[in-house]
Each structure stands twice: as structure tokens, then as C-alpha cells.
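Task: sequence design from structure.
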């Protein structure tokens, strides 16, 4: 199993870290991260009666998405700073009364009930030092027949193979993010009583790296958005910078 630095959690707990670079709701990368919501809008039917647990909520993007559809949401994050931004965002969107914010660690959800219709972990599996433990915890929180909704960076993506490891030169597993093979994720889901997922690829091009590469990739990613919001063919999905998917929680007999 892969592991991140021991200091990863301390990094996320500290003020002025993730809050500075994670701005999917607005800013340069907004157009890119909107594609995740488009996949949900087009491929996933949300029941307003659902109870949702959003683990690693960040600034509350998915908690607010589900709360706006009428769902009752519990939103967990390890960073007090991110939670207070999420609370403010929920207030601005008029959905505060539908979201309960909790400071907590994805690897230990013992204080949370086990009866959720959806547990989601978006743009965050890659940041968890013990992904196995966190997935076990999250799976336990889902009702039989409920959904586990997730994103991750596949290690076969152009983004990880080329931009992250060669242009950015961030040695694998040493930073605050890592990538996984699709097979590893599928096996981990299976071990945790979660079905083979429906999954989609987002972005062959992701704007990243030093300024020139970022600018070029930005243009390519913008162009890509015009012609293709997301990918459904496995050969393309494997090469995308992000995969979004959902599994169904199976009965223990599975
Ligand atoms: C890249 S952001 C993604 C936020 C949100 N899910 C989204 O898609 O907009 C990752 C979030 O995970 C949180 N996080 C990192 N490690 C965590 C952990 N062990 N437990 C709970 N939250 C964690 C960070 O504080 C940060 O807010």
C-alpha cells in the first residue's frame, strides 16, 4: 500500500495551506472542476430525501451541491479554516440549515452514524495517508444500497506520468498528494463491500506546472471543454487527470 508523509495531516490542519490553493468554485480552474458537477448532473440522479456525508468537504462544494437539492448533509474536514470557509459559503448559498459541519479525520469517523445514502470523498482520496483505513471507515457509514462517490488521480494519467513527475518533478509519494492505479482502486472498493463503479474521465489536459506549460495546457484544457466535457471510453478514462465515480454499497453477502 502507498503512503504519504506522516506530516500530511499536519499540513492540512495548518492555516494558510490548502485554503490558498484550493479554489475550485472560482478562479482559473473553475471551468475544469465544473466538469465534475456536470457528470453528476447528467449521470447521477439525486433523491432530495437522501442523507449525505461529505468527507473532506473543503470549502463545501459538494455539501452545498447536495444541500441545494434538498438533502440533509453532514460535512467533515480536518481543517478548521476550511470548515469556517465552507460554513460561510453555505450561508451565502442559503443552505446552512441543511448542513451540519464537523471537524474530523476521514480515517476515524467513529462519532458519525452508519446510515447515509451517500458518502462522498471528492478531490481528497489522494491526500489521505491511509486510504485503506479511510475507505473502510467511509464504507461503514453507507447504508446497504447507498452510494460511495469519489474522485482520484489515476497514475496512468498524462497529468501524473508527465506533468507531475517530469515537469513539476515532485517525486511520487513524497508530497501531499499521490496517484493510484485504477485496478488498485477497484480492488480496494471490492474489499470494502462496494460494487464495481460507474466511472468517467475528466480532462486529458490539466493546467499545471511552470508558467509556460500551465498556459499551454490551459488553452488545451479550455479547448477540450468545448468539444468534450468528460470521457466514457476506458482508454481515454485511463489517461485523464481525474476520475469521478460511484459504487453501490453491497449487502454483506455481496
Ligand atoms: C483538495 S480539497 C477538496 C475539497 C472538496 N472535497 C472539493 O472537492 O471541493 C481536500 C480537503 O481534504 C481535507 N483533508 C485532508 N486530509 C483530511 C483528513 N485526513 N480528514 C478530513 N479531511 C481531510 C483538506 O483539509 C481539504 O479541505
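Answer:
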Amino acid at each position: 500500500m502507498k503512503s504519504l508523509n506522516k506530516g500530511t495531516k499536519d499540513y492540512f490542519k495548518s492555516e494558510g495551506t490548502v485554503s490558498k490553493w484550493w479554489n475550485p468554485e472560482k478562479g482559473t480552474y473553475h471551468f475544469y472542476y465544473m466538469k465534475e458537477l456536470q457528470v453528476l448532473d447528467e449521470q447521477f440522479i439525486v433523491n432530495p430525501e437522501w442523507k449525505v456525508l461529505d468527507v473532506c468537504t473543503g470549502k463545501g462544494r459538494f455539501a452545498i451541491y447536495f444541500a441545494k437539492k434538498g438533502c440533509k448533509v453532514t460535512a467533515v474536514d480536518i481543517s478548521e479554516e476550511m470548515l469556517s470557509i465552507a460554513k460561510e459559503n453555505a450561508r451565502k448559498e442559503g443552505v446552512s440549515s441543511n448542513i451540519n459541519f464537523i471537524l474530523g479525520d476521514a480515517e476515524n469517523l467513529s462519532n458519525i452514524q452508519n446510515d447515509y445514502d451517500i458518502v462522498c470523498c471528492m478531490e481528497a482520496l489522494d491526500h489521505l495517508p491511509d486510504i485503506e483505513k479511510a475507505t473502510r471507515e467511509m464504507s461503514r457509514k453507507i447504508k446497504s444500497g447507498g452510494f460511495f462517490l469519489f474522485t482520484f488521480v489515476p497514475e496512468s494519467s498524462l497529468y501524473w506520468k508527465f506533468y507531475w513527475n517530469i515537469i513539476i518533478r515532485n517525486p511520487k509519494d513524497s508530497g501531499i498528494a499521490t496517484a493510484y492505479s485504477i485496478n488498485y482502486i477497484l480492488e480496494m472498493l471490492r474489499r470494502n463491500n462496494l460494487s464495481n463503479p460507474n466511472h468517467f474521465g475528466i480532462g486529458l489536459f490539466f493546467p499545471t506546472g511552470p508558467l509556460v506549460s500551465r498556459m499551454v495546457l490551459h488553452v488545451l484544457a479550455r479547448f477540450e471543454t468545448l468539444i468534450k466535457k468528460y470521457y466514457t471510453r476506458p482508454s481515454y478514462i485511463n489517461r485523464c487527470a481525474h476520475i469521478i465515480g460511484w459504487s453501490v454499497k453491497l449487502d454483506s453477502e455481496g
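The longest strand covers residues 142-152.
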